[in-house]
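User: Fold this; tokens only.

Assistant: Input:
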Amino acid sequence: MNIEIRKLTADLLKDWLCFFDNTTCSGDNEWAGCYCMAPHWSPALENEKAWEYSPAGAVHHRGCAVEHIKKGILQGYLAYLDERVVGWCNANGKQAYDSIFFRLPWEESEKNKKIKAIACFFVAPDLREKGVAARLLERVCSDAALDGYEYVEAYPFIHDENKAFTGPVAMYEKSGFTACGADDICVVFRKYLSS
């Protein structure tokens, strides 16, 4: 399978929206209408409109996502198969996330470190468990090393595999990540990058 990974830019916004409008945010699944805004939800946005999974919430989240992409806050990678977007990984510097609600708080020792964080993955239903997320993860780590990040951090859930949008533990272990902390919701995995 010839998967091509492209870094999200404003030029690819139309492709990103098509993927979210028609694949990940359609229907009545739990994350319908998220538009990958959950990890970016801030007190300022909360004052503007409470978080909700509903048609009205989806419209608001979509608009917020477009603005976050244009400002470079919402970053990540798209996976393409024959020019069709089949996967997405939300990844940026850790400081870009206002509410990665499933991660441990910043540690004092992290304050001056350049950390790439992975918030989530979405893969088209017909291509799940075919290595798309692993290819996205590989590209995140490769670019993070080139961009001078000290390590890549991810937050897979411990118990609930239905919430595997964070990526499965086995994928991180296979990619050279190691567990470095946990709370009752997630494991914090890190992959240290050679300089």
